[in-house]
Amino acid sequence: MDKRQKLAAASIGVALLVLGLKWLAYHVTGSVALFSDALESVINVVTAAVALYTIRIAAQPADANHPYGHTKAEYFSAVLEGALIIVAALLILRESWEAVFQPRRIDAPGLGLAINGAAGVVNAAWSWLLIRAGRRLRSQALVADGKHLLSDVLTSAGVLAGLGAAWAFDLPILDPALAAVVALNILWSGWKVMRESLGGLMDEAAPPETLARIREVISANAEGAIEAHDLRTRHAGRMTFIDFHLVVPGHLTVSDAHDICDAVERALRADVPDALVTIHVEPENKAKHSGIVVL
């Protein structure tokens, strides 16, 4: 089990712990806002389990049916997570709408808020770790899970502040109103997670800063070539696919041209982790006098 899978497995345990704390807070208080917060944690448990499953699939090596590997599997986890978040938000909106017409007095608010606050601290620490590790390990599933938890943390903070005000000023109507605000925030969070993941599924190009680095590496390491053009990139999970045309002098042997390609590939893989490079070699009469000039 690699680091990605270990983190995903640990996320299930953390999600169960946070769910238990938030459900206890709801049980103690009867608050609709705390119920909405606990319901989102149910989604966290499901998505953490899905993330582990898809990360295991993504870790499988390329095979005859998937010659480019299985890394896109992580995007399906993120899309499913976004969809489940939206479903949870709609359920919360329904619950809050009903509570508007039947406001409930909050029981033991101090204890409930303290328990929910402890759950928020756990979530905050784990979301920070997941986002940081996910970016380092180039795992879309871990980053998506971390961003969702971060949204959960912000939601919980808002709920705590609002319920504190409802308790202090004896305004029970604030409880369902806060639940509705939580639901709208969750909807926005779910949409952002899905939007980022769909970009990967649609073979979105590498980020501008990565493209700039790729151009610099090709220019600095293709000694003996003339130019490179028609550069294309796409990313799939932790993999970055790079392909371009490399123009070389017509008098070069196949072996010499191959050596130049090897040097460029080594440099790209050193600078862009998990890069898969494809180079199409062309003679000098195919030069477009545009694209990447070799230094």
TrEMBL record:
GO terms for cellular component: plasma membrane. InterPro entries: Cation_efflux (IPR002524), Cation_efflux_CTD (IPR027470), Cation_efflux_CTD_sf (IPR036837), Cation_efflux_TM (IPR058533), Cation_efflux_TMD_sf (IPR027469), CDF_Transporter (IPR050291). One of its GO terms (biological process) is intracellular zinc ion homeostasis. It is a multi-pass membrane protein. Coiled coil: none annotated. The chain crosses the membrane at residues 7-26, 32-55, 75-93, 113-129. GO terms for molecular function: cadmium ion transmembrane transporter activity; ferrous iron transmembrane transporter activity; zinc efflux antiporter activity. Residues 207-284 form the Cation efflux protein cytoplasmic domain. It holds the Pfam family Cation_efflux. It is found in: Cell membrane. Residues 10-202 form the Cation efflux protein transmembrane domain. Keywords: Cell membrane, Membrane, Transmembrane, Transmembrane helix, Transport. It comes from the Bacteria. PANTHER family: MITOCHONDRIAL METAL TRANSPORTER 1-RELATED. Belongs to the cation diffusion facilitator (CDF) transporter (TC 2.A.4) family. This is Protein p34.
